[in-house]
């Protein structure tokens, strides 16, 4: 491949690497902004959880204070009720004692009665009964308060545990998301660094090729003009070299066919298929060509060849006396898993005995215009067509 084509390919690769690098930088910026937003929201959520926790603790303390005040007020109310009931009972007792004493005094039989002892005994019994009632009431109130307090404490403990559990789950999710984003950012940074390294290498290669191209141009300008005889001798030697190359290619075709047969027999070779479909030769519709150094096939007297650089596909008439009409032939080519390429030959294509028809791709035609390779020298033995719809016949 000549220097211009190499420079064009390097420029294309450099442009694609620049686009990919810009795309990676945009992705990195987007990921960084998303990570920053997540970190901000995480900090806000954490602060909100802390505020809720402090508010929950304050509310729980207020609840405990209210519960204690309510218990003390309830105790005082019950105590007052019991005092009132005791006073009522004492009043009834005093009334009964008074009526009993009055009846005893008014009775005809005079008896001696110890009123003070009777009153003291009655008061003692009443006080004992009241004390028992109070002890029973206070024990019941204490049990109820203890049960209610334990129940409320358990409920609050369950709520606190649930809040802590949910907070831990959310924290773990945030940490996982943050780790994932950090890993993605790290991968993007590594890819960006790799692209920058590739870009630096391409720029260095481009500068080397450019300097080499300039040196070649300088050497070409400095070279003296070659005399006519030397040019003719050089052209003759070039033609001889071209013929020798063609003979070597023919021998290579034979060797490649033998190699293909051997590999097919051994079952250790995978054939890449290339199909050539013709409209004028019914027996030869599909042709399978193995993708080796140079791909060749033959349809009757017409040989089909694709060189290693994939810049053109050559049709050769191997007949010694008959012209070959290949008008309307359709060429189909597929390399590996790439899309299939199609090209239909125009009308009026005649191949004389020993002549060639070369169908150049767009890049191949551009390359032949500035190439100094002897294989690309114009000759009267071949015709030339250019398919602008096909960039390259291979890679």
TrEMBL record:
Chain ranges of the LTD domain: 280-395
Superkingdom to which the source organism belongs: Eukaryota
Any coiled-coil regions, as ranges: 35-62, 139-198, 231-258
Record localization: Nucleus
Chief location: nucleus
GO cellular component term, pick one: nucleus
InterPro entries, alphabetized: Lamin_tail_dom, Lamin_tail_dom_sf
Protein name as it appears in the record: LTD domain-containing protein
Species of origin: Rotaria sordida
